[in-house]
Amino acid sequence: MSRPANPNAMQPERPGRTRTAPPQLPPKFPFSGRYRAYTLFDWTGLIYLLLGFLALRVVWALGSGEPAWNHVIRDFEHPLYIAFHVLSLASLIFAGVRFFRFFPKSQLPRVGPVKPPPQPVILAGLYAAWIGVTVVFSLVLTGVLFQ
Amino acid sequence: MKHPLLKFEPIIWLLFGQGILVGTLLLTGWVLILGIAAPLGVVDALGFSHAHALGASLVGRLVLAAVIILPMWKGAHHLRHVAIDMGGAGRDAVVAPLLYLTALLGSLAGIIAVIRL
Predict the structure, then answer these.
(1) What is the number of alpha carbons within 13 Å of residue A106 lying toward its C-beta?
(2) Measured between CB atoms, which of B35, B52, B54 is closest to A146?
(3) Are B76 and A60 in contact (CB < 8 Å)?
Protein backbone atom coordinates (compact mmCIF):
# COMPACT_ATOMS: atom_id res chain seq x y z
CA MET A 1 0.00 0.00 0.00
CA SER A 2 1.45 3.35 -1.01
CA ARG A 3 1.34 6.57 0.93
CA PRO A 4 2.44 10.14 0.22
CA ALA A 5 6.18 10.74 0.52
CA ASN A 6 7.38 12.63 3.55
CA PRO A 7 9.30 15.64 2.24
CA ASN A 8 11.38 15.76 5.43
CA ALA A 9 12.29 12.08 5.37
CA MET A 10 15.91 12.73 4.40
CA GLN A 11 16.39 15.68 6.74
CA PRO A 12 19.26 15.19 9.23
CA GLU A 13 18.26 15.04 12.87
CA ARG A 14 20.37 18.06 13.75
CA PRO A 15 21.06 21.04 11.49
CA GLY A 16 24.60 20.98 10.16
CA ARG A 17 27.15 23.70 10.86
CA THR A 18 26.78 26.54 8.40
CA ARG A 19 29.91 28.53 7.82
CA THR A 20 29.02 32.21 7.54
CA ALA A 21 31.32 35.21 7.25
CA PRO A 22 30.88 37.91 9.89
CA PRO A 23 28.73 40.73 8.59
CA GLN A 24 30.71 43.63 7.18
CA LEU A 25 29.67 47.03 5.89
CA PRO A 26 30.48 47.48 2.20
CA PRO A 27 33.59 49.65 1.81
CA LYS A 28 31.75 52.43 0.00
CA PHE A 29 28.91 52.64 2.53
CA PRO A 30 27.44 55.15 3.37
CA PHE A 31 28.55 58.14 1.28
CA SER A 32 30.56 56.81 -1.67
CA GLY A 33 29.58 55.33 -5.00
CA ARG A 34 25.98 54.29 -5.40
CA TYR A 35 25.47 54.32 -1.63
CA ARG A 36 25.53 58.13 -1.58
CA ALA A 37 22.17 58.49 -3.35
CA TYR A 38 20.71 55.59 -1.31
CA THR A 39 21.76 57.16 1.99
CA LEU A 40 20.61 60.65 1.01
CA PHE A 41 17.25 59.23 -0.11
CA ASP A 42 16.81 57.67 3.34
CA TRP A 43 17.83 60.92 5.05
CA THR A 44 15.14 62.86 3.18
CA GLY A 45 12.87 61.12 5.69
CA LEU A 46 13.98 63.66 8.30
CA ILE A 47 12.97 66.54 6.02
CA TYR A 48 9.57 64.97 5.28
CA LEU A 49 8.93 64.35 8.97
CA LEU A 50 9.80 67.96 9.84
CA LEU A 51 7.70 69.28 6.93
CA GLY A 52 4.75 67.25 8.21
CA PHE A 53 5.04 68.82 11.66
CA LEU A 54 5.55 72.27 10.13
CA ALA A 55 2.38 71.80 8.07
CA LEU A 56 0.64 70.77 11.29
CA ARG A 57 1.77 74.05 12.87
CA VAL A 58 0.43 76.04 9.90
CA VAL A 59 -2.97 74.30 9.89
CA TRP A 60 -3.24 74.51 13.68
CA ALA A 61 -2.57 78.26 13.43
CA LEU A 62 -5.20 78.55 10.70
CA GLY A 63 -7.72 77.00 13.08
CA SER A 64 -6.65 79.26 15.95
CA GLY A 65 -7.54 82.57 14.30
CA GLU A 66 -6.00 85.46 12.43
CA PRO A 67 -3.30 86.49 14.95
CA ALA A 68 -1.89 82.93 15.06
CA TRP A 69 -1.96 82.68 11.26
CA ASN A 70 -0.14 86.03 10.86
CA HIS A 71 2.39 84.92 13.49
CA VAL A 72 3.25 81.77 11.51
CA ILE A 73 3.51 83.69 8.24
CA ARG A 74 5.84 86.21 9.95
CA ASP A 75 7.91 83.38 11.46
CA PHE A 76 8.45 81.92 8.00
CA GLU A 77 10.26 85.12 7.00
CA HIS A 78 13.12 84.23 9.36
CA PRO A 79 16.26 83.29 7.37
CA LEU A 80 16.51 79.94 9.15
CA TYR A 81 13.02 78.98 8.02
CA ILE A 82 13.78 80.12 4.48
CA ALA A 83 17.05 78.13 4.47
CA PHE A 84 15.19 75.06 5.76
CA HIS A 85 12.56 75.42 3.05
CA VAL A 86 15.21 75.76 0.34
CA LEU A 87 16.84 72.57 1.64
CA SER A 88 13.39 70.97 1.76
CA LEU A 89 12.67 71.89 -1.86
CA ALA A 90 15.97 70.32 -2.93
CA SER A 91 15.12 67.20 -0.88
CA LEU A 92 11.63 66.96 -2.36
CA ILE A 93 12.96 67.19 -5.91
CA PHE A 94 15.70 64.63 -5.18
CA ALA A 95 13.31 62.19 -3.47
CA GLY A 96 10.63 62.72 -6.12
CA VAL A 97 12.97 62.14 -9.08
CA ARG A 98 14.43 59.02 -7.45
CA PHE A 99 11.07 57.58 -6.45
CA PHE A 100 9.45 58.31 -9.82
CA ARG A 101 12.37 56.60 -11.56
CA PHE A 102 11.76 53.46 -9.48
CA PHE A 103 7.99 53.52 -9.71
CA PRO A 104 7.50 52.24 -13.31
CA LYS A 105 10.00 49.43 -12.71
CA SER A 106 8.13 48.26 -9.61
CA GLN A 107 4.82 47.70 -11.42
CA LEU A 108 3.50 44.18 -11.84
CA PRO A 109 4.03 42.89 -15.41
CA ARG A 110 0.33 42.08 -15.63
CA VAL A 111 -2.74 41.89 -13.39
CA GLY A 112 -5.04 39.28 -14.88
CA PRO A 113 -5.54 40.28 -18.51
CA VAL A 114 -4.49 43.90 -17.86
CA LYS A 115 -0.94 45.03 -18.59
CA PRO A 116 0.38 48.35 -17.30
CA PRO A 117 1.32 51.03 -19.83
CA PRO A 118 4.95 51.08 -21.03
CA GLN A 119 7.43 52.38 -18.44
CA PRO A 120 8.17 55.68 -20.26
CA VAL A 121 4.44 56.44 -20.34
CA ILE A 122 4.11 55.86 -16.58
CA LEU A 123 7.16 58.04 -15.95
CA ALA A 124 5.84 60.82 -18.17
CA GLY A 125 2.46 60.62 -16.39
CA LEU A 126 4.12 60.94 -12.99
CA TYR A 127 6.11 64.00 -14.05
CA ALA A 128 3.04 65.56 -15.67
CA ALA A 129 1.08 64.99 -12.44
CA TRP A 130 3.90 66.45 -10.34
CA ILE A 131 4.18 69.59 -12.47
CA GLY A 132 0.41 69.92 -12.77
CA VAL A 133 -0.29 69.54 -9.04
CA THR A 134 2.56 71.92 -8.19
CA VAL A 135 1.28 74.60 -10.58
CA VAL A 136 -2.35 74.27 -9.43
CA PHE A 137 -1.42 74.18 -5.72
CA SER A 138 0.87 77.19 -6.17
CA LEU A 139 -1.90 79.14 -7.90
CA VAL A 140 -4.30 78.23 -5.06
CA LEU A 141 -1.82 79.27 -2.40
CA THR A 142 -1.17 82.61 -4.10
CA GLY A 143 -4.90 83.29 -4.40
CA VAL A 144 -4.96 83.20 -8.20
CA LEU A 145 -7.29 80.17 -8.25
CA PHE A 146 -10.46 79.90 -6.13
CA GLN A 147 -10.62 83.55 -5.12
CA MET B 1 7.44 44.81 20.11
CA LYS B 2 8.51 43.20 16.86
CA HIS B 3 5.38 41.12 16.32
CA PRO B 4 2.80 43.96 16.36
CA LEU B 5 5.02 45.96 14.02
CA LEU B 6 5.11 43.08 11.55
CA LYS B 7 1.33 42.93 11.76
CA PHE B 8 1.06 46.62 10.85
CA GLU B 9 3.77 46.44 8.17
CA PRO B 10 1.31 46.55 5.20
CA ILE B 11 -0.38 49.67 6.60
CA ILE B 12 2.96 51.30 7.35
CA TRP B 13 4.20 50.53 3.83
CA LEU B 14 1.00 51.93 2.33
CA LEU B 15 1.35 55.18 4.30
CA PHE B 16 5.07 55.31 3.48
CA GLY B 17 4.48 54.88 -0.25
CA GLN B 18 1.70 57.46 -0.27
CA GLY B 19 3.95 59.71 1.80
CA ILE B 20 6.51 59.83 -0.98
CA LEU B 21 4.00 60.00 -3.82
CA VAL B 22 1.30 62.33 -2.49
CA GLY B 23 3.67 64.11 -0.11
CA THR B 24 6.05 65.02 -2.93
CA LEU B 25 3.22 66.07 -5.26
CA LEU B 26 1.64 68.38 -2.68
CA LEU B 27 4.61 69.60 -0.68
CA THR B 28 6.54 70.96 -3.67
CA GLY B 29 4.02 73.76 -4.26
CA TRP B 30 3.50 74.22 -0.51
CA VAL B 31 7.21 74.71 0.19
CA LEU B 32 7.75 76.79 -2.94
CA ILE B 33 5.00 79.30 -2.11
CA LEU B 34 4.55 79.27 1.69
CA GLY B 35 8.17 78.55 2.56
CA ILE B 36 10.17 80.46 -0.04
CA ALA B 37 8.31 82.77 -2.45
CA ALA B 38 5.94 84.42 0.06
CA PRO B 39 8.55 85.01 2.79
CA LEU B 40 10.92 86.51 0.19
CA GLY B 41 8.14 88.82 -1.03
CA VAL B 42 8.03 87.31 -4.52
CA VAL B 43 4.30 86.60 -4.10
CA ASP B 44 1.73 87.61 -1.49
CA ALA B 45 0.84 85.03 1.14
CA LEU B 46 -2.85 84.16 1.40
CA GLY B 47 -4.78 86.32 3.82
CA PHE B 48 -6.34 84.60 6.82
CA SER B 49 -9.96 84.72 5.70
CA HIS B 50 -9.15 83.43 2.21
CA ALA B 51 -6.85 80.69 3.56
CA HIS B 52 -9.46 79.67 6.13
CA ALA B 53 -12.26 79.53 3.57
CA LEU B 54 -10.16 77.30 1.31
CA GLY B 55 -8.86 75.10 4.13
CA ALA B 56 -12.24 74.60 5.78
CA SER B 57 -13.88 73.21 2.63
CA LEU B 58 -14.14 69.43 2.33
CA VAL B 59 -11.48 69.21 -0.38
CA GLY B 60 -9.32 71.66 1.54
CA ARG B 61 -9.49 69.56 4.69
CA LEU B 62 -8.58 66.39 2.79
CA VAL B 63 -5.63 68.07 1.08
CA LEU B 64 -4.38 69.59 4.35
CA ALA B 65 -4.72 66.24 6.13
CA ALA B 66 -2.65 64.62 3.36
CA VAL B 67 -0.02 67.37 3.57
CA ILE B 68 0.34 66.81 7.32
CA ILE B 69 -0.07 63.07 7.76
CA LEU B 70 1.51 61.30 4.80
CA PRO B 71 4.97 62.94 4.90
CA MET B 72 5.22 62.02 8.59
CA TRP B 73 4.92 58.32 7.77
CA LYS B 74 7.36 58.57 4.89
CA GLY B 75 9.75 60.30 7.29
CA ALA B 76 9.30 57.84 10.13
CA HIS B 77 9.79 54.79 7.93
CA HIS B 78 12.85 56.14 6.15
CA LEU B 79 14.43 57.29 9.42
CA ARG B 80 13.89 53.79 10.77
CA HIS B 81 15.93 52.48 7.86
CA VAL B 82 18.62 55.11 8.45
CA ALA B 83 18.84 53.85 12.03
CA ILE B 84 19.11 50.22 10.88
CA ASP B 85 21.71 51.02 8.22
CA MET B 86 23.86 53.17 10.47
CA GLY B 87 23.49 51.42 13.81
CA GLY B 88 22.40 47.88 13.01
CA ALA B 89 19.08 46.16 13.62
CA GLY B 90 19.75 45.70 17.34
CA ARG B 91 18.08 48.94 18.34
CA ASP B 92 15.17 48.55 15.93
CA ALA B 93 12.87 47.21 18.64
CA VAL B 94 13.13 50.63 20.34
CA VAL B 95 13.71 53.00 17.41
CA ALA B 96 10.90 51.73 15.16
CA PRO B 97 8.06 52.02 17.73
CA LEU B 98 9.36 55.46 18.75
CA LEU B 99 9.35 56.76 15.19
CA TYR B 100 5.99 55.24 14.32
CA LEU B 101 4.51 56.56 17.57
CA THR B 102 5.76 60.04 16.62
CA ALA B 103 4.09 59.72 13.21
CA LEU B 104 0.90 58.35 14.80
CA LEU B 105 0.65 61.17 17.35
CA GLY B 106 1.43 63.72 14.64
CA SER B 107 -1.27 62.19 12.45
CA LEU B 108 -3.84 62.33 15.26
CA ALA B 109 -2.90 65.96 15.92
CA GLY B 110 -3.23 66.58 12.17
CA ILE B 111 -6.72 65.11 12.11
CA ILE B 112 -7.71 67.29 15.07
CA ALA B 113 -6.15 70.37 13.40
CA VAL B 114 -8.14 69.74 10.23
CA ILE B 115 -11.40 69.08 12.12
CA ARG B 116 -11.14 72.30 14.13
CA LEU B 117 -10.81 74.49 11.02
Answers:
(1) 7
(2) B54
(3) no
Task: Collect all residues of chain A within an 8 Å Cβ-Cβ radius of residue B50.
Answer: 143, 147
Residue A145: left (phi > 0), alpha (psi -120 to 50), or beta? beta
The SS3 assignment for A111 reads strand
Name the β-bridge partners of A111. A114
Closest CA to B32 of A31, A85, A140, A17: A85
DSSP structure string for B10-66: HHHHHHHHHHHHHHHHHHHHHIIIIIIITTTTSSPPPPHHHHHHHHHSHHHHHHHHH
Q: Which residues pair with A114 in a beta bridge?
A: A111
- Tally C-beta pairs within 8 A across A and B: 183
pTM value > 0.90 = no
Report chain A (147 residues): mean pLDDT per 10 consecutive residues. Answer: 73 78 82 92 96 97 95 96 97 96 88 90 96 95 85
A9 min Cα distance to partner chain B (Å): 32
Q: How far is B26 from chain A (nearest CA, A)?
A: 7
For chain A, the residue count is 147
